[in-house]
């Protein structure tokens, strides 16, 4: 299992790299200056706003979840939702029930987007076969 990122900057950098994006492309897609995202990646931006992090995640198809006292938030669309962060529709699903579920989440986090789509298709096929 891949080691968990130790800093926010490391997590963002890994997510961007896993999608074969440069910091420049990721920043442009998020509507940010290239220097803004580079400051975040270097850890020199102090404390980036959650809104900014949500914009980076949303515009680059990076899963993003913020939890505050068991209330979860996910990236929203500014035009549609009026905010870059909206309440998660199923916050309770974000809480891991046991070690097996934690192992599944760990595997999921280690996969790239192509691997995730393939895994979902295989699992859905197994469920469909079982139901028939």
From TrEMBL:
One Pfam family this sequence matches: HTH_3
UniProt GO molecular function: DNA binding
Domain HTH cro/C1-type: 12-58
Protein name, as recorded: HTH cro/C1-type domain-containing protein
């Amino acid at each position: 299992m891949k080691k968990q990122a130790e800093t926010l900057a490391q997590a963002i950098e890994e997510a961007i790299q896993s999608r074969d994006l440069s910091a420049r492309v990721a920043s442009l897609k998020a509507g940010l200056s290239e220097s803004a995202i580079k400051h975040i990646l270097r850890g020199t931006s102090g404390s980036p706003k959650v809104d900014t992090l949500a914009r980076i995640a949303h515009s680059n198809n990076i899963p993003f979840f913020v939890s505050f006292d068991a209330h979860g938030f996910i990236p929203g669309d500014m035009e549609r939702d009026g905010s870059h962060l909206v309440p998660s529709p199923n916050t309770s699903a974000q809480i891991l029930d046991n070690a097996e579920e934690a192992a599944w989440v760990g595997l999921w986090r280690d996969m790239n987007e192509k691997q995730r789509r393939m895994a979902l298709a295989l699992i859905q096929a197994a469920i469909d076969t079982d139901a028939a």
